[in-house]
Amino acid sequence: MKKSQERVLAYTFGITFITVILIVALSLPYPTSFQYEVFKIILALACAGVAAFIPGFLNVQVGNWVRAGGAIAVFVVIFFFSPAKLATHEPIPITNDDMYKAIELGQSLEYVKDTIDAHISYKNGEGEFDDMADIIYTSEKMTVISNLEYLGFDRNDEISMLRTRDLSQWEGVNEAWELISRFEGFLEKKSKELFYLYRASFIAEKIHATIQENPGGDISTWNSELLEYLEWIRVNIDYFKQSDLKSIVNDKTDEIRYSNLVEFMKSAVSK
Q1: Of 153, 174, 246, 152, nearest to 204 (Cα)?
Q2: What DSSP assignment string belongs to 165-219?
Q3: What integer best gives the mean pLDDT of the chain?
């Protein structure tokens, strides 16, 4: 096949699929996370095909691991940076699955953070070795990554850092908090409902872990913050308007009340 014919085929492919994506976008304005990723890949390939006919130069570098020029550079821009997404400010409807994933994210992320804290304490000679720590950490961090990707978190550096880092590679607790703050910043920007559900779950599991490890420990600060989130959730999210979430927390006869609270929240949005 001649080079000119290859260029014509690439251009035809690009125009055809850009048209298809435009039609799909108009008929499916709120794609799922999986659909969005598929559309993004097809759109990136289509735009690269069209770009092969546009004169000029374009060079792109993503971190220290991707360098591209020409049509491939256009693919990289569309795939990694999603410029159309950056220009969109229309709020996306929040689904039950979104809320469930946000609650589960808070639960799993606290498990990850707690495991890292325990590991750092052990390295500093202040704690005991837990032979299950690596298994728990690996399992929970994959749940965190899955939920973040489902909710649309697309900052590849942070995801890659969590995915590839072993428990032994964490050097300090502040490092973990910095990563968590980036995840929280994304969620807060995406939806106040999801952020509050996430924070309530994270704090509840944090308090539960504290009670289990140190029954006489001070949980008042965390508990006050949790109650504020629960009140906002009760007032603003329909699934909880008839629920007395605070009563679960205030039942001091139940030693696992904070863990039960998270499970109750998950079941409420699953109905």
Answers
A1: 246
A2: --GGG---HHHHHHHHHHHHHHHHHH-HHHHHHHHHHHHHHHHHHHHHH-TT---
A3: 80
Distance CA 230, CA 224 (A): 10
Reduce the DSSP state of residue 66 to 3 states and report it.
strand
Distance CA 13, CA 24 (A): 16
Q: Are 35 and 25 in contact (CB under 8 A)?
A: no
Q: List pLDDT tens digits, range 8-58.
A: 666 676 677 668 767 766 666 656 656 667 777 777 777 666 666 665 556
How far is 265 from 239, CA to CA, in rounded Å? 9
Q: Give the three-class secondary structure for 93.
A: coil
Domain ranges of the chain: 3-86, 96-269
The single residue listed with the structure tokens 């072993």 is 166
HEC string for 110-157:
HHHHHHHHHHHHHHCCCCCCCCCHHHHHHHHHHHHHHHHHHCCCCCHH
Determine what percent of the chain is predicted with pLDDT higher than 90. 34
